[in-house]
Automatic annotation (TrEMBL):
HAMAP family: His_tRNA_synth (MF_00127). InterPro entries: aa-tRNA-synth_II, aa-tRNA-synth_II/BPL/LPL, Anticodon-bd, Anticodon-bd_dom_sf, His-tRNA-ligase, HisRS-like_core, HisRS/HisZ. It is an enzyme of class 6 (ligase). The gene is hisS. Keywords: Aminoacyl-tRNA synthetase, ATP-binding, Cytoplasm, Ligase, Nucleotide-binding, Protein biosynthesis. It catalyses: tRNA(His) + L-histidine + ATP = L-histidyl-tRNA(His) + AMP + diphosphate + H(+). This is Histidine--tRNA ligase. The lineage of its organism: Bacteria, Pseudomonadati, Pseudomonadota, Betaproteobacteria, Burkholderiales. It comes from the Bacteria.
């Protein structure tokens, strides 16, 4: 790359700019408030983890570990490290490391960037953002259902109605083992219709073959042995418990026997929220129970369940539905004809901001302070409700002129600089 050549962002890792970031902040605020209402507490984990955490936690033969992780060797000590591709393994690692389950179960949530090396497409990027809700230390179907209801409550907050909930049960390891043997035997008998990817997975991860999108394989996988037929009484009772709570809360669901999720750590309940509005990237939130992951990563056995949603996909859906997101509005724009007045102007603006007024100051450029006409144009373009004119005559009288730019456009009053608290309330009332 030439010394002065323009450097662009890495493909699939996007900047979030003013005008876009307000939508992100709005969504994040809705999520934080909702998590507080369900008593889920925030956890923040490092972006970089030991590679072995994901190999052991996600599964060595999953697509994520085999193909998609950004892994590298630490130059200082030779450790194998990875940019986190998902949040659950990191949260479980933190729970174990800091003994968070010593006094009972914990409900937690996270938000942040994840990284997977895959082909960028709408709503699917190499750096993407997830929100996850996880409940550790709770074994019953009530918490599975609670997490699903948490997601439903979020859709209501966001005004999202065009979704469907698909659920399934993966049972327990011994039940999956019996089904796995039957499934492999079935697949071996139907290799003639299988693509190369399915043949590769047939013995290492046969459940993922059921998740194929290949039209030529649909009849074969639809007729394949179903895991639900191999579940014992306890697993079926757990699944029925989840469904009963969803029914009692008016949440529609359908059983999808081919729903297996892409991570090895799931057992019992799995679920996905799906929409038809985003094309191929229709899953907006997914999760399930992972009762063996805590022990798998090195902790004492503990049940757990959770979900994750893709922030980019949810924002795409919000945009697709035309959901009204309130734009941030300025209360006032400070017009300063003479740079010499800046010390007094900034003192006044500081007091206004301390009183809760959102105000933008006109600042000098390399060409000096712009003229009054130019400053008023910028004030109007800013969307501010009022202009604050700090002219020499006003300041000599210990005043500022407050001019309406929206409602009552053109109306203006003189306000005393020593009565900032009094007219701060007037500025805020115009919001």
């Amino acid at each position: 790359m030439a010394k002065n050549e323009k450097i662009a962002a890495v493909k699939g890792m996007n900047d979030i700019l003013p005008g876009q970031s307000e939508r992100w902040q709005w969504l994040e605020a809705q999520i934080r408030e909702l998590m507080d209402g369900f008593a889920y507490r925030n956890v923040r984990t490092p972006i970089v983890e030991h590679t072995q955490l994901f190999v052991r936690g996600i599964g060595e033969v999953t697509d994520i570990v085999e193909k998609e992780m950004y892994s590298f060797e630490d130059k200082l000590n030779g450790e194998r490290l990875t940019l986190r591709p998902e949040g659950t393994a990191s949260l479980v690692r933190a729970t174990i490391e800091h003994n968070l389950l010593y006094d009972g179960g914990k409900r937690m949530w996270y938000i942040g960037p994840m990284f997977r090396h895959e082909r960028p497409q709408r709503g699917r990027y190499r750096q993407f953002h997830q929100v996850g809700a996880e409940a550790l230390g709770f074994a019953g179907p009530d918490v599975d259902a609670e997490l699903i209801l948490l997601a439903v409550a979020l859709w209501k907050r966001l005004g999202l109605t065009q979704w469907r909930l698909e659920i399934n049960s993966l049972g327990q390891p011994e039940e999956r083992a019996a089904h796995r043997a039957a499934l492999i035997a079935w697949l071996e008998q139907h290799q003639g219709v299988m693509d190369e990817e399915a043949k590769r997975r047939m013995h290492t991860n046969p459940l993922r073959v059921l998740d194929t999108k290949n039209p030529a394989m649909q009849d074969m996988v639809n007729a394949a042995p179903k895991l639900l037929d191999y579940l014992g009484e306890a697993s079926l009772a757990h699944f029925d418990g989840v469904k009963a709570i969803l029914d009692a809360n008016g949440v529609p669901w359908t059983v999808n026997p081919r729903l297996v999720r892409g991570l090895d750590y799931y057992n019992l309940t799995v679920f996905e929220f799906v929409t038809d509005l985003l094309g191929a990237q229709g899953t907006i939130c997914a999760g399930g129970r992972y009762d063996y992951l805590v022990e798998q990563i090195g902790g004492k056995p503990a049940p757990a369940v959770g979900w994750a949603l893709g922030v980019e996909r949810v924002l795409e859906l919000v945009k697709e539905l035309g959901t009204d997101i309130p734009a941030p509005r300025l209360d006032a724009y400070a017009i300063v004809p003479d740079a010499a007045a800046m010390p007094q102007v900034l003192r006044t603006l500081t007091r206004l901001r301390e009183a809760g007024v959102r105000v933008q100051m006109h600042a000098a450029t390399v060409d000096g302070m712009a003229g009054m006409k130019s400053q008023f144009k910028k004030a109007d373009a800013s969307g501010a409700h009022h202009a604050l004119v700090f002219g020499a005559d006003e300041l000599a009288r210990g005043e500022v002129t407050v001019k309406a730019l929206r409602d009552g456009q053109g109306a203006q009053t003189a306000q005393r600089l020593d009565d900032v608290a009094g007219w701060a309330a007037t500025l805020q009332s115009a919001r």
